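pls design
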């Protein structure tokens, strides 16, 4: 190709050049390794070094590194990528040889790794063999474990059936049809029973299901015999059976009279053969009174009265079926019902103001308390069932406070908390006085029927305060400490 000088525009799909490319007016062909660099619009291109960088750098990942030590490669300088070796650990059924070769751990009985192309895993056979049963055969052997291909076949050794006098086999169908011809045992017509062939009307004497039969019953005996209590009226159609009388008669007893309803004649028995009116005579209207019961014969009928004063009774027991019961006295002004010689000691009684529980420290016990609440005695732990919404707890004992304030509270040993409003200040003893002291608590807003748990706890404004109680039987010992729980009732004003 001849040289071309000047600015010439060439449109070509390919250019073959066996010689040099020259840039600029000096016809510079450049040096090895240089590339053509654009200087912009309407500016001459020139030869330059190949120093371009990638727009996005390549970053080394796990087990990869650059020989230069750089963390990334952008093409600015030549570099080498190196891969570090991986540590591979075998698991269940997998083993690693020399850290690079992964092998499967096979039993070489049912599975091995030497079959197929290369060292591929292959199934040799199943661990449990299939055995052929009756009428089942294998093309090879009597068992199948998958180690070789076989064909399984089923043979039908009994497809022939034999009919009988009551069953036939139709082999013209596929499959064969089994037909019932008749039943093995026949029905025979007895007296007043008629069999008729349904198809042709012929009379038959037996039925075995081999032909259609119509069965009828005939009544050949319409004559009945009466008795002393039954009559047969043959003048009607059908005959009429009439009851004359009952077989057993009813006899009038004491204070019972019977009269023929038609004629008024007196009769002594009744058998249904004639109409009778029965009457009970009132001849026994006299009764004798008993304990606390009197009979007033002046009235008609007699009047049975309960005495206004009931005496001599051993007990009165009310129904116990859930219904409300009551025993009500007189509410006449200034005339209430008086109860005398009543024993109300049973714990089942609900008595307003009654004692629900009592605890007594009889033997000697000197108990000291610090400034923190402490339990008087586990023996004084008491549970009670509330009878109303209020109770009063009373504790009596000899208290020594030694110029300290004495406090007391009621502790719920079941729920482990003090009862509401029961931690109170009670007394202040100067010096070392020992006073027999009554301490009271009031528990309110209770629910009747609910069980409550209390134990007396005490403390001083500072250490130490004491309670003295009981003795060993000696004269002039300490008085016993006593705690009582009283039902407060519902008629209580609390301010």
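designed seq:
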């Amino acid at each position: 190709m001849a040289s071309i000088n000047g600015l010439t525009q060439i449109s070509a799909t390919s250019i073959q050049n066996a010689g040099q490319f020259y840039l600029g007016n000096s016809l510079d062909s450049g040096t090895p390794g240089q590339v053509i660099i654009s200087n912009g619009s309407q500016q001459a291109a020139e030869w330059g070094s190949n120093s371009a960088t990638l727009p996005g750098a390549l970053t080394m990942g796990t087990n990869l590194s650059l020989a230069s030590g750089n963390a990334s490669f952008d093409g600015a300088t030549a570099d080498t990528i190196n891969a570090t070796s991986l540590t591979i650990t075998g698991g269940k059924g997998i083993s690693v040889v020399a850290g690079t070769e992964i092998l499967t751990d096979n039993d070489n009985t049912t599975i091995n790794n030497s079959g197929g192309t290369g060292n591929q895993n292959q199934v040799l056979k199943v661990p449990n063999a299939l055995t052929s049963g009756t009428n089942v055969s294998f093309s090879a052997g009597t068992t199948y474990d998958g180690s070789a291909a076989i064909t399984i076949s089923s043979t039908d050794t009994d497809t022939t059936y034999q009919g009988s006098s009551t069953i036939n086999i139709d082999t013209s169908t596929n499959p064969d049809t089994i037909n019932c011809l008749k039943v093995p045992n026949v029905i025979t017509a007895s007296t007043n029973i008629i069999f008729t062939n349904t198809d042709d009307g012929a009379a038959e004497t037996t039925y075995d299901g081999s032909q259609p039969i119509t069965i009828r019953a005939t009544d050949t005996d319409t004559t009945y015999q009466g008795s002393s209590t039954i009559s047969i009226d043959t003048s009607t159609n059908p005959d009429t059976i009439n009851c004359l009388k009952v077989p057993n008669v009813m006899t009038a007893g004491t204070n019972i009279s019977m009269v023929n309803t038609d004629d008024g004649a007196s009769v002594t028995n009744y058998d249904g053969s004639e109409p009778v009116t029965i009457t009970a005579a009132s001849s026994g209207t006299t009764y004798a009174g008993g304990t606390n019961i009197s009979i007033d014969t002046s009235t008609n009928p007699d009047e049975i009265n309960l005495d206004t004063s009931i005496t001599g009774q051993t007990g009165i027991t009310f129904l116990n079926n859930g219904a409300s019961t009551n025993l009500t006295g007189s509410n006449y002004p200034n005339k209430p019902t008086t109860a005398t010689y009543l024993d109300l000691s049973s714990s089942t009684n609900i008595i307003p103001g009654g004692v629900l529980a009592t605890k007594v420290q009889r033997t000697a016990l000197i108990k000291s308390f610090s400034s923190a609440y402490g339990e008087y005695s586990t023996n004084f732990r008491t549970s009670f069932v509330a009878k109303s919404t209020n109770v009063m707890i009373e504790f009596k004992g000899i208290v020594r406070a030694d110029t300290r304030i004495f406090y007391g509270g009621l502790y719920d040993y079941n729920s482990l908390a003090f009862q509401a409003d029961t931690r109170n200040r009670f007394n202040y003893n100067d010096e070392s006085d020992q006073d027999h002291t009554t301490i009271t608590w009031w528990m309110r807003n209770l629910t009747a029927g609910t069980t409550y748990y209390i134990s007396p706890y005490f403390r001083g404004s500072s250490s130490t305060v004491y309670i003295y109680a009981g003795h060993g039987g000696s004269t002039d010992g300490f008085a016993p400490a006593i705690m009582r729980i009283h039902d407060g009732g519902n008629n209580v004003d609390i301010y």
